[in-house]
C-alpha cells in the first residue's frame, strides 16, 4: 500500500479547505456567529470539528498499543486498524469519529457537516470495520483499549444509532460487528473485575461505565445496564469522603471523585443520589459557591503531551459537575455551587483548545464538543 492511501489524501484535502475557512474567521467574526449547544458559537464548534478532520486520517505521529507475536505483526497503523489509525492513537481516533458523527447530526446544515460526513464515509466502510474486528478480536487482545477506547467505540455506535438519516443508518450497520465485539469484551470482563480502577486516566472504570451506560440506554441493552448497576453497588455505594482535595494528580484528564459521582447519578434515583453524595463529597458548598472550592487545574506546558492532559481535566470536570447537579433533586442547595464550579472550568478550558500543539489538538476538540453538547446527558435530540 502507498504511504498515504487515496482515502486519506482526499479527506486531508477536505479537512484542509475547511480548516482554512474556519481559521480565517477573526475574533469579531467568531463573536458574530450564531450560537450552538452550550452557548458556544458555531464558528467555535466548527474549529473543534476541524481538529478532528485534521487528524482522523493523519497516520503519523502514532502511538501504538500493539503487541508483537511474530514478524507479520510489524505493520503500519493503517494496516493494523484500518478505520481508526489516525489521531495519534486508537482511542483518540475513535472519539474523533464520534465527534464528527455528533457534529454532523446536531448541525446538519453547517459548513463543517459535509466534510465530517465525508470523513466518516472514508473510515467506516465494511472492509475497514472487518479489519478492525480481526484486530480487536485477535489472540491476546481481550484487554485491548479496555475500558476507555471500547467505551468510546460504543458511544460512536450510539451516536450513529440515534441519527435518522440514511447515511448514518448505513454507517451504523457497517460499525455493528465492531460494536458487538466491544460490548462482548466489556460483558465478559465485568464478572471478573474484582476492584474498580480509581485513576485519573484511561483506566478509570467509573468514567467508562458512564459512557457504556449511555450506549446501553440507546441500544436497549438492559442486561448491560443491570451488570453496570451491580458494579455500582459493589464498587461505589459504600464509598465515603472522597479526597477531592488530593486532585488532580500531575497528568490527570479525568477526576476520580467526580467521575464516580457522575456515574452514580445515572444508576440512582435523585433522592437516593442526593443522600449518597452528601456522604461521598460532604464538602460541596450549599446555596453559594466558595471561591476556593475546586478551582480549575493549572496547565504549565501544552506542548507536553502528558501535561496537556490537564486541559482535558478541566473539560471533563465541567461536564461531570453539570451532570452531578442535574442528578440532584430540584432545589438541592448544592446545585448552585456545582454549576458555578462547572462554569469556571468551562471558561478556563474552552479558549485554550487549539491546534497549536498536536499533543492536545488531536483529542481535546472531542472533549470540548462532549461538554458543550451535553453528550453524557443527551445523546438523542
Explain what the structure shows.
The protein has 381 residues and is mainly alpha-helical. The chain folds into three domains: 1-123, no CATH class; 129-234; 236-365, no CATH class. The chain is 57% helix and 0% strand. The protein has helices at residues 6-23, 27-31, 42-53, 77-80, 90-106, 113-123, 126-136, 148-162, 166-189, 205-219, 222-235, 256-267, 270-280, 309-327, 335-349, 358-361, 364-372. α5 runs parallel beside α8 and α14 packs antiparallel against α15 (335-349). The radius of gyration is 20 Å and the shape is globular. The N and C termini lie far apart (41 Å). The model is unreliable at 17-34 (pLDDT under 50).
Fold topology:
Layout: H1 6-23, H2 27-31, H3 42-53, H4 77-80, H5 90-106, H6 113-123, H7 126-136, H8 148-162, H9 166-189, H10 205-219, H11 222-235, H12 256-267, H13 270-280, H14 309-327, H15 335-349, H16 358-361, H17 364-372
Helix pairs in contact: 1-3, 1-6, 3-5, 3-17, 5-6, 5-8, 5-17, 7-9, 8-9, 8-10, 10-11, 10-12, 12-14, 14-15, 14-17
The helix-strand sequence is: HHHHHHHHHHHHHHHHH
Mean pLDDT: 90
Q: How large is the share of residues in beta strands?
A: under 5%
Q: What's the alpha carbon Rg, rounded to whole Å?
A: 20 Å
Can you summarize the main beta sheet? none
Stretches where pLDDT falls below 50 for ≥5 residues?
Answer: 17-34
Amino acid at each position: 500500500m502507498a504511504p498515504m492511501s487515496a482515502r486519506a489524501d482526499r479527506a486531508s484535502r477536505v479537512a484542509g479547505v475547511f480548516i482554512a475557512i474556519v481559521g480565517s474567521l477573526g475574533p469579531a467574526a467568531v463573536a458574530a456567529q450564531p450560537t450552538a449547544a452550550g452557548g458556544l458559537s458555531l464558528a467555535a464548534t466548527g474549529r473543534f470539528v476541524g481538529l478532528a478532520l485534521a487528524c482522523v486520517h493523519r497516520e503519523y505521529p502514532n502511538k501504538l498499543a500493539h503487541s508483537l507475536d511474530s514478524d507479520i505483526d510489524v505493520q503500519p497503523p493503517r494496516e493494523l486498524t484500518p478505520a481508526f489509525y489516525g489521531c495519534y492513537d486508537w482511542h483518540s481516533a475513535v472519539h474523533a469519529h464520534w465527534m464528527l458523527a455528533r457534529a454532523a447530526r446536531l448541525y446538519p446544515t453547517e459548513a463543517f457537516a459535509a466534510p465530517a460526513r465525508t470523513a466518516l464515509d472514508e473510515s467506516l466502510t465494511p472492509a475497514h470495520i472487518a479489519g478492525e474486528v480481526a484486530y480487536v478480536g485477535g489472540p491476546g487482545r481481550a484487554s485491548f483499549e479496555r475500558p476507555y477506547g471500547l467505551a468510546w467505540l460504543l458511544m460512536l455506535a450510539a451516536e450513529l444509532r440515534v441519527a435518522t438519516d440514511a447515511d448514518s443508518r448505513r454507517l451504523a450497520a457497517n460499525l455493528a460487528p465492531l460494536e458487538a465485539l466491544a460490548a462482548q469484551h466489556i460483558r465478559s470482563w465485568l464478572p471478573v473485575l474484582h476492584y474498580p480502577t480509581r485513576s485519573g486516566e484511561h483506566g478509570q472504570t467509573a468514567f467508562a461505565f458512564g459512557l457504556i451506560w449511555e450506549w446501553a440506554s440507546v441500544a436497549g441493552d438492559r442486561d448491560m445496564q443491570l451488570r453496570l448497576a451491580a458494579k455500582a453497588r459493589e464498587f461505589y455505594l459504600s464509598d465515603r469522603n472522597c479526597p477531592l482535595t488530593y486532585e488532580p494528580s500531575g497528568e490527570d484528564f479525568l477526576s476520580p471523585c467526580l467521575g464516580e459521582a457522575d456515574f452514580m447519578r445515572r444508576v440512582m434515583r435523585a433522592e437516593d443520589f442526593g443522600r449518597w453524595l452528601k456522604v461521598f463529597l460532604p464538602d460541596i458548598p450549599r446555596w453559594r459557591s466558595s471561591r476556593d472550592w475546586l478551582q480549575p487545574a493549572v496547565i504549565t506546558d501544552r506542548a507536553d503531551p502528558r501535561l496537556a492532559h490537564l486541559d482535558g481535566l478541566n473539560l471533563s470536570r465541567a461536564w461531570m459537575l453539570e451532570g452531578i447537579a442535574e442528578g440532584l433533586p430540584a432545589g438541592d442547595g448544592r446545585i448552585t455551587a456545582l454549576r458555578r464550579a462547572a462554569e469556571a472550568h468551562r471558561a478556563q478550558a474552552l479558549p485554550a483548545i487549539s491546534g497549536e500543539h498536536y499533543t492536545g489538538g488531536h483529542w481535546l476538540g472531542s472533549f470540548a464538543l462532549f461538554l458543550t453538547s451535553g453528550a453524557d446527558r443527551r445523546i438523542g435530540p
